[in-house]
Amino acid sequence: MLLRFPDILQNPNLSLLQQFAGAFMKDINLGVLLIDLSFHLVDISDTACRILGLSRDKVLGEPLNAIFASLPAEHQLVDRSILDGVIVRNHAMSWMNSDERYDLLLDSNILKDGDGRIVGAYIMFKDVTNLRSLEEQVKRSDRLAMIGQIAAGTAHEIRNPLTSIKGFMQVLNNTFREKEMDKERTYTEIMLTEINRINDLVSEFLLLGKRKDVSYHEVDIHTTLREILPIIHNEAILHNVNVYYEATEDTPKVVADRELLKQVFLNISKNGIEAMSDGGSLTIGVRTETEDRVVLVEIRDSGPGIPNFLIDKIFDPFFTTKSEGTGLGLSVCQRIVHDMGGTIRVSSKGFGTTFTVCLPFS
Ligand SMILES: Nc1ncnc2c1ncn2[C@@H]1O[C@H](COP(=O)(O)OP(=O)(O)OP(=O)(O)O)[C@@H](O)[C@H]1O
Ligand SMILES: [Mg+2]
Q1: Cβ(329) to ligand 1 under 6 A?
Q2: Hey, which of 32, 97, 165, 358 would disulfide with 45, CB 3.0 to 4.6 Å?
Q3: What tens digit of pLDDT does each residue of 257-267 get?
């Protein structure tokens, strides 16, 4: 309700309003400045005086440009243009006052009388310094979590080649035992112990480090799969699993980082093999969907499958049902494939699991 001049004199509530205005300027936890048409300061709240480092008695009635005369134009709290009706909402600015830095969120608007004439303007600001530092803290802990994930991802990538070295070493060790080559057998046993030590270290400390540079080229899926088949076979032998590879002709090339792609197929195959404790079969097949312009690599196992209530979680970092797992295998795979513009699907209906890696062709 707007009060015109004669009404104001007769309004019994006026003293209440005046008292409220006085209390508002004194108690409110907001910086408030009232300005008249000639850009002079009419009133200022106690909070504004404290934050801006002003003494109320010294600044009341003074022109604003004189009050902030020592500041360059870009650091002025407010510009004369607010009297022309320039409205400011949630303008973030910082203010230095005797070595204390304040982060302020500022609003300003004009004041009009009953006839719509501009009579002045107000500026209000809130001290959001604490909120800002809270925001910084959240950002910092986000960054830490990210570093942790990168570190863990790197550790995972070290463990993969280590697993194949270990597998081959075990094969050598068995051969030496069969052939009664005791000296060589002792060497391989020492090497195996050392590999286990590295493995434990990597799992425990989750190394900090930078990911290797990714380089995308045209990649032939079959060549890539053939290169890792011996490693998969070797892992499979240890688990009494048969591996089948269904090679198809004329598969278009995909654009990918070959080494990373190998890691994806290895991780998924390894999961399949690890799921089959009493033996079984792992089948790797390749299909082309010409209409959707994708190459599909299907890795099927005859393991126990993944229960429905877990299937949404398996791609989450650190989700694992294995006592020695890091739970990073699939989340790393998903990130790699996603970066190549592809997707990974999983289907598991009670018996066996199929992972399908879809990669767009070049
Ligand atoms: N083929 C599969 N059959 C059954 N369960 C699977 C299969 N693949 C993945 N899972 C489930 O998904 C979980 C997450 O797999 P992921 O590869 O991310 O981690 P992990 O294998 O547990 O650990 P890490 O890869 O670090 O050794 C596994 O712990 C397992 O429970
Ligand atoms: Mg895994």
Answers
A1: yes
A2: 32
A3: 888 899 899 99
